[in-house]
Design a protein that fits this description.
- This protein has 63 residues and is of the alpha+beta class.
- A 3-stranded antiparallel beta sheet has the order 2-1-3, with no helix packed on it.
Amino acid sequence: MAEAKKSLRITQVRSSIGRPADQGKTLRALGLGKIGRTVDQVDNESVRGMIFKVKHLVEVEEL
């Protein structure tokens, strides 16, 4: 049987205003952009790397 893919629920909790532009672009690439917005993403290395870059702006929970 194929193993079920894990996913992550990412919620933006802080603003990207006053942060480097690449951090704002990373939030947009994750599907975020406003405080309180939540998205579900597949758990893979590229998404984990983006989360690491903006870890001070988001909260992450595993589903």
